[in-house]
Amino acid sequence: MMENDTLSRVLYIDLSKKKFFIKDRKDLFEKYLGGTGVATELLHEECPEGINAFAPESPIIFAVGPLTGAFPLASKTCAMFKSPHTGDLGESHAGGRSAIAIRMAGYGAIVIKGESEIPIYLSITNGKVLFKNATTLWGMKDGSIAARVMRQSEKGEGLRAIFRIGIAGENMATFANVTTETYRHFGRMGLGAIFGSKMLKGLVISGKHMIEVSNKKEYRTLYDKIYNMATESPLMKKYHDVGTAINIKSLNSARALPVRNLQASSTDSIEAVTGEEIAKHHLARRVACAHCPVACIHLAYLREPYDDDPYFYKTTPVCYDFELIYSLGTMVGITEPKAMLKLIDIVEQVGVDAMSMGVILAWIAEMFEKNNVSEKELNGMSIKWGDAEGFIELVKNISNPKTDFLKACSRGVSYASSIYGGKEFAMSFGKNEMPGYHTGPAGYLGFLIGARHSHLDNGGYSVDQKELKDTDLSPETVVDKLLDEEAIRQILSSIAVCFFARGIYGLDLTSEAIKLLGFNYNEKQLHEIGRQIHLNKYKFKMREGFSIEKLEIPERIYETVDPTGKITKEFINRGLQHAEKQIN
């Protein structure tokens, strides 16, 4: 590392005692770079074995990387924690201004422990941490209102980020998320629930530290090279023009898109909710994360009349992408854009992971369809496929549950199905709800074995589409490919760049970039560091009870047609057996 680089500074915050201190952890950053690598090691240090995820001593860890604030597309903050949703590793990445704000505040990582006796939010600026009363912000039905109050109350616009939870986090729904900059999220795995358990409504962080580089001329040249690659790449243009929603049409055509809880893998009524059609008829604007020239965040405007005055309309910007169209669209049988956007908006308001919520809603709809649950369990409601208004009410009820069934649903589909049945169509893998890819067996093996914050930490769907569809790869070869790519992705999330930039930041370019910031590692060394980080994740997962032998696989994946025709129990079981040998 370079001399006087603030990246090595770790901020430790105790919510119980209202105290904080700073340690220099150059040892961690020189060994693991930053981001995921450093956060995983800090989790091993700070999280007592077997602790309840909601215990005061259960830590929240944020970490950024050496490229943060220095190079394009290095926009991600890694959050690491013990997941209340799965009981083992919790990892989530968010963009927006979160990473640059932490870096400019003079830190490479933040560790938060303890529990406040009243609701609070943290103000982190000018080398200080202030613990501010958030009692009046607790219980608001729309989490964005609390963020607005924090924004108006705190100074430091520009290099500043605001994190906050919604009512689902306050009620400790185990898949509640943390929102930053309105449209970015630490989703999956339940970080928002841990915030809620600590009575932590949110935090505001800002700063104006500078980053030095070792050779300004070489730095400028490399910066321009990466910037031009990002702006001229056809792949990045796709993300800018249509966003990840461009995948909806192709996956539907390939019969790889989950529909109505994966009862089908395509639908004839998809056209209106494809990325192209939404961009054509509903797109309002595009938004970019800090230090990103791509602007892949797409916002649609939802226009609705006021209930008491039909001559006046309210207009709400709603962020959409592939995963939202899948989980809150096709997965629940909604293919009308306005209805889908309304459902997305309420999920945003209450503050839950959209993928998990969509899968849970789909499971409930099928349970109700099969008469496995009644209106009584749904707090007087009935539900059917495509019923956006019904699903909106369900989201509210799950976020603030009143019946035992809904309380179980607030802990995820794996937990709820273990009590009420329906496991054969409870679309959960490793206790985490599935993403929107029914592409083949490699995708499902990735969901099952990946030490991931979400499906994007494994390349299974890519192996299905590019290799397995037309060739006869063995399950063992597929797993080896997945694990090898995991090692590379751990480096990307440690430096820490957006995974959309993985086609730009190869290990060769990464080595070149970090060298200008004081890290001298060649490609081979980086690959080995990534492999070690991945194994460190597995050590934590297995320490907390994860086991490949205990993995449950819903029968539905074997029943619904997929593009490869190779999703069989034999393929999946052989792959899992090989994975167990490789990670132990």
Helices and strands in order:
Elements: E1 9-14, E2 19-24, H1 26-32, H2 35-46, E3 60-63, E4 77-82, E5 89-94, H3 98-104, E6 109-113, E7 120-125, E8 128-133, H4 143-153, E9 160-164, H5 167-170, E10 178-180, E11 184-186, H6 191-197, E12 200-206, H7 216-232, H8 234-241, H9 247-253, H10 275-281, E13 283-287, E14 297-306, E15 309-320, H11 322-327, H12 337-350, H13 354-369, H14 388-399, H15 404-409, H16 413-420, E16 428-429, E17 432-433, H17 441-449, H18 460-468, H19 475-495, H20 507-515, H21 523-543, H22 556-559, H23 569-583
Parallel strand pairs: 1-6, 7-12
Antiparallel strand pairs: 1-2, 3-4, 3-6, 4-5, 7-8, 9-10, 9-12, 10-11, 13-14, 14-15, 16-17
Helix pairs in contact: 1-2, 2-19, 2-21, 12-14, 17-18, 17-19, 17-23, 19-21, 19-23, 20-21
Description:
The chain has 584 residues and is α+β, with helices and mostly antiparallel strands. The chain folds into 3 domains: 6-206, Aldehyde ferredoxin oxidoreductase, N-terminal domain (Aldehyde Ferredoxin Oxidoreductase,  A, domain 1); 245-428, Aldehyde Ferredoxin Oxidoreductase Protein, subunit A, domain 2 (Orthogonal Bundle), CATH 1.10.569.10; 432-583, Orthogonal Bundle (Aldehyde Ferredoxin Oxidoreductase Protein, subunit A, domain 3), CATH 1.10.599. The chain is built from 23 helices and 17 strands. It has helices at 26-32, 35-46, 98-104, 143-153, 167-170, 191-197, 216-232, 234-241, 247-253, 275-281, 322-327, 337-350, 354-369, 388-399, 404-409, 413-420, 441-449, 460-468, 475-495, 507-515, 523-543, 556-559, 569-583; strands at 9-14, 19-24, 60-63, 77-82, 89-94, 109-113, 120-125, 128-133, 160-164, 178-180, 184-186, 200-206, 283-287, 297-306, 309-320, 428-429, 432-433. The strands form 4 sheets. The chain has a 6-stranded mixed sheet. A 6-stranded mixed sheet has the order 8-7-12-9-10-11, sandwiched between helices. A 3-stranded antiparallel sheet has the order 13-14-15. Strand 14 (297-306) and strand 15 (309-320) form a beta hairpin. Helix 17 crosses helix 19 (475-495) and helix 19 (475-495) crosses helix 23 (569-583). The longest helix is centred in the last third of the chain and has 21 residues, at 475-495. It is globular and about 65 Å long. The two termini are 32 Å apart. The model has no long low-confidence stretch (mean pLDDT 94).
